[in-house]
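About this split. The held-out portion is used to measure sequence recovery: a designer receives only the structure tokens and must propose an amino acid at every position. Recovery is the fraction of positions where the proposal matches the reference. Here is one held-out target exactly as it appears in the evaluation file.
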């Protein structure tokens, strides 16, 4: 057992569970101190002088409570084989880092490669799904499996559309991840436990909540921001005039994610929410996988022509970083910005700025879904 690693993990978990702590504050702390442990080892006055924060955030009582809880969580994580993901870790989902309110800490159980999929689609909808909605989800996932097999399906393991999406992914061989509104010490609803277990080999279970945290209804809305932030595209399949899936769609729009909605009959209660999203231009209409693939600019496997990678490109007026990106794009044919950030080991912000420069130089063309192709 690595005692030093466990101690660092304890500080990270404790920081994530300090009341009023968020990612922006955590980033400031790390920038000023370089070490998470400083929050717990410096006095309130020292922290205030260093960061400029109100010292009421730093009471000894609150910090002590968080550290005691974190010690128990470290033991739970190690015993259960759970992967803790701090927001500065390389394995932390890169798409989620684009969101200012991303969790400081995540807990993940499953196949780690699933979170780095080339394409991520979140499928959400009513808990009272009709055969119309379920059939659409199953067909959508089946066709994505045939044409874009490197797609991850994300949902919330709830009744109705959520669990239908997870089970369809398992059936058709796509990885699938459930974002939970509680710790990994339990599964809710309990009726979906077998599905959750089946997901661990090809996907997994993800949450921002420690096992000791008592679940309340606010967690279910809060987790929807993760469902939205993980995705390239969010698909809403059946929703009443109000509902959590509409909240997810709103957040996805705020995150500049592509949002799609399945239309339904006028007056159909289960489709009122989706129809309103389309009518108010908050979601694009979707009827099949091809609608999604075309809108996102994804290359379908069955339609992708065989082509030799371009051997050379003009390096005139390109910086070394720009040449590196152009080499990647000419070799691959295209690149999705989140995947490129991982494979090129480049921060999203830096990569995005360089791609903008390449657009100005007429070297690349941007497509929906964060896709870039060389000119």
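Reference sequence for scoring:
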């Amino acid at each position: 057992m690595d005692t030093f690693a466990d101690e660092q993990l304890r500080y990270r978990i404790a920081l994530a569970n300090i009341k009023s702590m968020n990612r922006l504050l955590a980033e400031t702390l790390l920038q000023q101190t370089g070490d998470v442990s400083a929050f717990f080892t410096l006095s309130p006055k020292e922290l205030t002088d260093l960061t400029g924060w109100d010292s009421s955030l730093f009471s000894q009582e609150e910090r002590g409570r968080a550290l005691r809880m974190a010690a128990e969580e470290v033991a739970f994580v190690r015993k259960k084989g759970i992967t803790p993901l701090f927001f500065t870790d390389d394995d932390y989902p890169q798409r989620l880092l684009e969101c200012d309110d991303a969790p400081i800490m995540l807990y993940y159980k499953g196949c780690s490669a699933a979170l780095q999929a080339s394409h991520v689609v979140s499928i959400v909808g009513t808990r009272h799904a009709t055969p119309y909605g379920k059939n659409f989800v199953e067909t959508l996932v089946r066709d994505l499996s045939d044409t874009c097999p490197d797609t991850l399906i994300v949902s919330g393991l709830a009744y109705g559309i959520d669990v239908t999406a997870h089970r369809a992914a398992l059936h058709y061989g796509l990885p699938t991840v459930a974002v939970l509104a509680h710790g990994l010490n339990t599964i809710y609803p309990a009726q979906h436990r077998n599905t959750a277990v089946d997901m661990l080999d090809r996907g997994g279970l993800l949450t921002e909540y420690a096992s000791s945290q008592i679940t309340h209804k606010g967690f279910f809305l809060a987790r929807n921001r993760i469902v939205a932030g993980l995705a390239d595209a969010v698909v809403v399949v059946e929703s009443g005039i109000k509902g959590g899936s509409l909240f997810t769609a709103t957040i996805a729009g705020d995150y500049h994610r592509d949002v799609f909605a399945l239309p339904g009959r006028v007056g159909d209660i289960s489709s009122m929410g989706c129809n309103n999203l389309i009518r108010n231009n908050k979601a694009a209409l979707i009827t099949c996988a091809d609608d999604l693939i075309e809108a996102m600019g994804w290359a379908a496997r069955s339609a992708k022509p065989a082509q030799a990678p371009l051997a050379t490109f003009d390096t005139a007026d390109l910086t070394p970083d720009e040449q590196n990106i152009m080499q990647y794009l000419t070799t691959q044919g295209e690149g999705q910005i989140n995947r490129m950030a991982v494979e090129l080991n480049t921060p999203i912000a830096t990569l995005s700025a360089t791609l903008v420069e390449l657009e100005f130089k007429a070297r690349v063309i941007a497509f929906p879904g964060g896709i870039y192709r060389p000119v």
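Annotator remark: The mean pLDDT is 89.
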